Amino acid sequence: MARAIDQDVQRFKQIVRGKVRQNLRKYVTHGELIGRQGREYVSIPIPNIEIPHFRHGDKGSGGAGQGTGENGTPIGKGQDDADGTGQAGDQPGGHVREVDISLAELAEMLGQELALPRIEPKGKHTVSTQKDKYNSLRRTGPESLRHMKRTYKRALRRLIASDSYNPADPVIIPTREDRIYRSWKTTTQPETNAAIIYLMDVSGSMTDEQKEIVRIEAFWIDTWLRSQYDGVTLRYIIHDAVAKEVDEDTFYHTRESGGTRISSAYKVCRDLIAKSFPPSDWNIYCFQFSDGDNWGEDNKSCIELLARDILPHVNLFCYGQVESPYGSGDFIRELRRIHDDWDNLTLSEIEGKDGIYDSIRQFLGTGR
């Protein structure tokens, strides 16, 4: 039977999760979680929560509606500090509590709030791992793997069979012949792996604010896709007039001042897929972020590269155009010309941090 304290703890956890879900859009938009990210858990600041309970007053202090004052006197806050000015007090105020939420729980909340469908991995499960499963027994083995219950029952049967068991003095001491040990078999299990490739324009028109939007959105994309696959590999490509693959820190903190040729990033992405992620073995997701600037004569090359070398091989290609005071915003119009021809091409215009939530829904709501 569950203890009362255990029931209270579970109830408190439900209240905490409810508060997180209630404010999930705020967390997604402003990115409070990213700086608190651990390996498996995220620490989330939420307002102080108290379990409702009765509070008893002093005996003989009167009941409801009793005290000084005339009939009809409004009940409200004190009049002395109505204008917000007053002396320092000695009473506690509201507090913020840090609670740990697993990334798996966050992914589940995100999926429920955005109504994201479960992803059905494409292709054959040809990527495998070796796993030991303890599903058999043997007569020898290390003491740490001794099966105590089986050993005890075997010793009991031996004593009963030899008429040595005394119910009045039920002492059972297993011998070497009675010991049974757990054993294992190594099995091969298929895994569904995903490769996430991020592409971003780092030319002078992409400001730090736009990159922060990309960083926040990428965090939530990663959180969702990790909940759908056994293994996720991340790769990053930056470009201005030329492109290159970089690490995560460089991806979010590099800023160039050159021109913009998006086709250079598509070529690096194409070569990366061909070299490291065979489409028959991997579920591939590409997320491109840009302010829409591109050298005009490069648009045709971009569309050809995308349609010929990338879209046929990926689960999803998402283009997010981040609004910038310097970008022209023209490139999304070029992509709209082929949008209806490809089910795995998704476009989103992100006007600011408030647009992150809806952009994630557009990108991941296809269930691909």
Summarize the structure.
By secondary structure, this protein is α/β, with parallel strands linked by helices.
Please name the defining characteristics of this protein.
alpha/beta; two-stranded antiparallel ribbon; 10 strands; 3 domains; six-stranded mixed sheet; Rossmann fold
Description:
With 368 residues, the protein is an alpha/beta fold. It has three domains: 10-50 and 96-113, no CATH class; 128-188, no CATH class; 191-364, von Willebrand factor, type A domain (Rossmann fold, 3-Layer(aba) Sandwich). It is 33% helix and 22% strand. The protein contains ten helices and ten strands. Strands 7-6-5-8-9-10 form a six-stranded mixed sheet, sandwiched between helices. Helix 3 crosses helix 5, helix 5 (208-228) runs parallel beside helix 10 (356-364) and helix 7 (262-276) packs parallel to helix 8. The model has no long low-confidence stretch (mean pLDDT 78).
CATH class of the largest domain: Alpha Beta
Please state the CA-atom Rg, rounded to the nearest Å.
31 Å
**Low-confidence sequence ranges:** none
Count of DSSP H/I helices: 10
What count of structural domains? 3
Write the layout of secondary structure elements.
Blueprint (H helix, E strand, L loop, with lengths): L3 H19 L1 H7 L10 E7 L48 E7 H11 L13 E12 L9 H14 L19 E11 L1 E9 L6 H21 L2 E9 L3 E4 L1 H6 L8 H15 L6 E8 L8 H12 L5 E7 L8 H9 L5 E6 L5 H9 L4
Parallel strand pairs: 5-6, 5-8, 8-9, 9-10
Antiparallel strand pairs: 1-2, 3-4, 6-7
Helix pairs in contact: 3-5, 5-10, 7-8
